User: What shape does this take?
Amino acid sequence: MMAPFHIAAGFRSPHLSILLLALSMVLPSAAVPPTRFDTIAGQADAARTANHVPDAIRLYREATRLKPAWSDGWWYLGSLFYDLDRFSEAAAAFRHLLDDPRYRGSAHAFVGLCEYETGQYDDALAQFRAWAGAGWAGTPELRTVGYYHFSLLLTREGKFTQSLALITWLVPRLGDNAELTEAMGLASLRIRYLPENCPPELRERVWLSGKAALYAQMAPRQFEPADEFAARLVARYGGQPEVHAVRAMLYEIEDKKAEAEVEYREELKISPDHVPALVALAEMDLDKGETAEARVFAQKAIDAETNHAEAHHLLGRVFLANRDLAASVKELETARQLAPKSAGVRAHLAMVYGRLGRIQEAKAESAAYIELKNKADAAAALRIKSQGQPAIPAQDSSSETLEKTN
Amino acid sequence: MISRILLIASLVAFAIAAPGAVAQTDTAPPRKDFRQLLQDAEKARDENRDEDALRLFRRALIVQPESEEALWYLGTMLYEKKQYAEARDALRVFMTLRSDAGAGWALLGMTEFNLREYPRALDHLQRARSMGVGDRKDLSQAMFYDLACLLNRFERYDEVMVILATADADDSFIEPAGLHGLRMPYLPAEIPADRRAMVEVAGRAVLAFQAQRYDEAETGFKQLILDYPNEPGVHFLYGAFLSVQRPGDAVPEFERELQISPAHVLARVRLAEQLVGSRDYDRALALAREAMKLEPKRVSAHLYAGEALVGKGDLGDGIKELEIARDGEPDATRTRWDLLRAYLSAGRQEDANREKQEIGKLLRLDAQSHPSESGETQHDQNPH
Assistant: This one.
């Protein structure tokens, strides 16, 4: 059997060579006598090229001491340390590049990776967000490792939907991969652990749910093994929180709404305040016109998580369906405040304003909706064209559950 | 479980070739200061004054940050004292200087294992294994144990079999062997409490099979079936054993496994293999194709699909499948032989000659060295 690609282990050497090759070397001018810096920089490059790593490190250190503005030197130094898993030292070198327009994007990713390895998780997450904001710069290898670690940190922060969206991006490329499985299992079960600190007793649960999630996201989707793993998960851990919600989400992906509803209701028996289940059931009820129960579920979700934008959105829709426009507009305005970039919220607000005769506001919300929709369509088209960069995971908590509805 | 406590005395000899092995830097202060610190540190260590020794090694490293001796002693002492994070950092600097040291990679990998940095631990233990760790039995067994555990966890089960064979696995390997046999991607510490007994029964049977104690192995596998008849992986494991011992008896076990685990790729593949053997080509082909659908890169699925197609007389499609299998695993002689015969039947003499040459090369290589380690399609001697 072919050895599977390993995200952490497989990444370290090859990508750096590619990055390093892509960089222009700083060479001393022939016409000017070389300075001490020029000499040492040249020796450093030669040592690196000859794979004399300890010498190269010593020389790059000396050269960057002589000329702290030498970006290429910091880059090489950081890369060498990174390759050796000496992450504190690598991060220190890469941080010199965060303001350099040539390196800034990739440097954010590398600093994030280093900070992840040294346990500075909040800082690492901030770096990955900056990396995403800078357009996910770097080689495909860097993006693979970056997405993976970014996703893990999003799970740790409780941004499970965003985490899954990001890690899912890797599934078609890497296939059935143990590290992806674990990452998807943690996010699916909404467990705020990193793989390295997840309690051993959760391992089987994480693996089973991870496999179910991973097979469901393969291209083409493989629902048979996904269902098998999900069934095993339920058989083994059906009395534990989150398990029925995982099963329900898989049914939703399979477009088996009735089965999904049953599982969400099972989840509520175990976790009465399970917000994703409450929200999902409220939406299902709304679709069926069962607004009384939808209202109860949406309100319970808000009680459990006051700033849950989608719950306010759904409650607003319930009131809209019941023609209680004043209550509806209140909930939808709250949803807009929490998630201003939700096209769905803006569309419903436009509808309610229109019915209330607040024409100007209705027009403004319609325009906002169209703009957001166009942007989303354009971004999706761009992602398809560029063969893959995920949306930037948002920082605000309210967008967590709005992604699927937009 | 293998004790991870290593005898420093058995390791230090490798690290330091001679007192002069200390790296020099441009800014090194007078050597005497450093040597004195090192001597004091070693004396403290010899007198079991560990805290003094650690303090002195750290001071020595302030004077000479790239001292191989100080880094190694510090790393090994910290490892023994289970101060893994600091041990890891010292060993990583040491490995910068001594990337040729297999034992160093092993100790670093085991340190990372204890820190639960599993991908990195696996990478470094693999490196140690490829370089070798000399004749230090305790170190090599500890390395193989961790390696087997990690390969299981990363679902690289086929490689675990090789490790078990290479390590001359004793009873301390029962849990990794059982996890491997049942294809459970857990570390021993992660085995669910209600699965521990099952893993142990499986592990004992797998190790007995490995040691060619076939009666004992069969007793174990039968016990497994008796105690856990509906658990995923159990019937497949017994079927894999039977396919080596009594191939005809393997079929119902694989079929039962597929009832329990409908998406089990290997059960399909191994069942297809048995059905090709009994010339039931239609069923074999259907199973192989299902396996390919579930796992398109599974080489053996292409092999048995190819064999079934050729058996049915569809030489063109059969050859295509066999070629995919050959390209996926060029060292598999079975595929080469199949192709040789298929090319001859199709009148493709030139292609047949090429395969013949390749078979010759592989046989010569095989005679010179040892059985293939990857060997997915050469699993006749393996339970999987």
Remarks:
- The radius of gyration of chain A is 25 Å.
- Residues 1-6, 8-29, 396-406 of chain A have pLDDT under 50 and may be disordered.
- Residues 299-384 of chain A form a domain with the Serine Threonine Protein Phosphatase 5, Tetratricopeptide repeat fold (CATH 1.25.40.10).
- Chain A touches chain B at residues 1-4, 6-9, 12, 53-54, 57-58, 62, 84-86, 175-176, 178-179, 181, 195-197, 200-201, 203-204, 207, 222, 224-225, 228, 232, 236 (CB under 8 Å).
